Amino acid sequence: MPVKKLEVTQRWTNQEIAALLYRIADILEIQGEIVFKTVAYRRAADAIEHLNRDIRDIWQNDPKNLRSISGVGEAIADKIDELLRTGELKYYKKISKDIPVGIFDIMKIPDVGPKTVARLWQEMKITSVDKLEKAARAGKLRTVKGFGAKTEEKILAGIDAQRRKKSSTRVPIGTAYPFAQNVVSELRVACGDLIRDIAPAGSLRRMKQTIGDLDILVSADLPDHPKIIDAFVKLPQVQDINAKGPTKASIIAVNGLQIDLRVLEPKNWGTALQYFTGSKEHNIAVRQIALSQGLSLSEWCFTTVKGENEIFTPTEQETYEKLGLQWIPPELREANGELEAAREKNLPRLVELSNLKGDLQMHSNWSDGSFTIEQMAEAARARGWKYIAITDHSQGLGIARGLTPERLKQQWAEIDALNKKWKDFVVLKSIEMEIHADGSLDFPDDILAQFDLVLVSTHSALKQTREKITARVVKALQNPYVDIFAHPTGRLIGTREESALDLEQVFRVAKETGTILEIDSAPERLDLDDVRVRRAHDLGIPIVIDSDAHSPAGFDALFFGVAMARRGWLEAKDVLNTLEWKELKRRLKRNKK
Ligand code: DGT
Ligand code: CA
Ligand code: CA
Ligand code: ZN
Q: Which residue is closest in CA terms to ligand 1's atom 8?
């Protein structure tokens, strides 16, 4: 396989930790544990669910730090610590071992709590929603003391309501990706060495910006297939089981995502992974190519059209090679020229996260970030970077602590002092400067000239007409000290539409003026997106990939920005922050003559 590093730190998100703690509380209540213990878990879960920062930033490898979260005492802190360190929790495994998985589905029915569930289970052996529904319809629940016809009605209505609320919204990759990683690693742990190979496929593997559902493939020996399915539907992430057979299952996870799991034999892996990665359009074209060579291609294998011979390709690499094609990175599989390039052995060498040498957008506690410049810098150094630009917000943005010229002076003194510490690393003086509604800038040129580089962006008046907002941005980009246009469209995935900005015109002006365009990697932004990146690249516009981090954990987001760049066909040479600062500096508009 071509070397491809698409690793992201394994992580339990705040939401997933909270869900696990809620579940522990439920189990304890079902088991009749003393009330204060269940209350403690729920209180901690609630606090973690509503934290405004990544729990890892609080944790910093020391369980004691977690106790600063309200409701988290020593016992729970130690458990979260174990989870963050090892990715699993022995205590949870122990207490959940004997709980039938259907019990948790029952508990999701409105108005059905752990106490009711425990009684249904112990007194009537009811361990699934199906059984519960049958019993209620048959009027059998009222035979249990304390339950009546009213209870039966309520339960049936609840089951109905639950069935109807299947969510159809797409999930941002920033949420779906770490979630899929967790599911994959937990399934691995649960199945031990039964699993030969496991991978997310579908749109997640192609790194699309939003995901409809997760498709996970497992390769294992045939007799082990049902065991893997059984382990899968018991994972703590599972909320509802849609379908379950000997080799596949479809479930709804606690976060609303559907997961389709398919188990197959190692000999089918290469064709199955190819098939289920998609896209559908790419697959149709691949099959056409196969047919033109007298081969029929399915998720199972190739078959000769005449001879009925089955040909297995155990790796995806071999599957493409069989058709005379280069292996195609999943991000490119959208039927947009990748097959022609693969045939001519002319695919791009896509940029990788490890190619980045620095990051040009982040915030410190001088504006709305939560860490000092030094903390951000040390975290960047730990990642092996050579430079970062501190881009706190400027005064004009009505938000928290935008920088005034006076505070800028103080910030620069701090940066100058810090830069004396390191020989191999530099903190650049920068700013995320608001472009006012009329296109004027927050600082005069004599201040702008003193920065190492300047980012501009728009956060206010995003509802302006196409003419107005385009003129506003164009005017800003014509300023000789404006180096980078950050998150150009202003969209927030799922919550705010793009502005009406005429991007074609902006691209033209960026090209003329030498202004750099940004891919903002914040998972809710991913702005520019993949399609725009490719267009900008075709026009020869320089691009940077920034994290827009507000904490060291925020640097992880770059993985998703890099994915947009890859989907836009960018190579390392097309991304300016793969350069050393000395080289990058010369490419800035302000330093060109
Ligand atoms: P999504 O889930 O909407 O984000 O997008 P995908 O691409 O993950 O689509 P999904 O989950 O419906 O199917 C997973 C893959 O399975 C898809 O990328 C390609 C393959 N596939 C599904 N349906 C078809 C089909 O009708 N024809 C072909 N050739 N492939 C299909
Ligand atoms: Ca999918
Ligand atoms: Ca699917
Ligand atoms: Zn911003």
A: 202
* Residue numbers of the domain that contains 78: 14-96
503 in Cβ contact with 527 (< 8 Å): no
Residue 378 pLDDT > 90: yes
Residue type, 216: I
In a shared domain, residues 136 and 236: no
Same domain (yes/no): 194, 206: yes
Q: What is the pLDDT of residues 529-567, one digit of tens each?
A: 999 999 999 999 999 999 999 999 999 999 999 999 999
Domain boundary among 74, 96, 118: 96
Q: Are residues 429 and 542 in the same domain?
A: yes
Mutation test residue for ligand 1: of 169, 171, 215, 271, the one with most atoms within 8 Å of CB: 215
Which residues of 247-316 form beta strands (DSSP E)? Answer: 248-253, 258-264, 295-297, 302-304, 310-311
Provide the β-strand partners of residue 380.
Answer: none
Given this model, what pLDDT does residue 219 score? 98
Give the number of the atom of ligand 1 that is nearest the alpha carbon of residue 284. Answer: 29
Closest ligand 1 atom number to CA of residue 204: 8
Kindly state the average pLDDT of the residues 195-214. Answer: 97
**Does one domain contain both 85 and 140?**
no
Interval between CA 177 and ligand 3 midpoint (Å): 15
CA distance 564 to 174: 12
Q: Looking at residues 349-365, what average pLDDT do you find?
A: 97
Tell me, yes or no, whether 395 lies in a domain. yes
Q: Decide if 6 is inside a domain.
A: no
Among candidates 159, 155, 124, 160, which has minimal Cα distance to 140? 124
Measured from CB, residues less than 6 Å from any atom of ligand 1 are 202-203, 208, 211-213, 215, 275-276, 278-280, 283-284
pLDDT band at 4 (very low <50, low <70, confident <90, very high): very low
Distance CA 311, CA 299 (A): 12
Average confidence (pLDDT) over 103-110: 85
Give dist(CA 76, CA 66) in Å, integer: 9
562 and 506, same structural domain?
yes
Instruction: Give residue 276 CA to ligand 3 midpoint distance, Å.
Output: 8
Per the CB < 8 A criterion, the answer to whether 591 and 581 are in contact is no
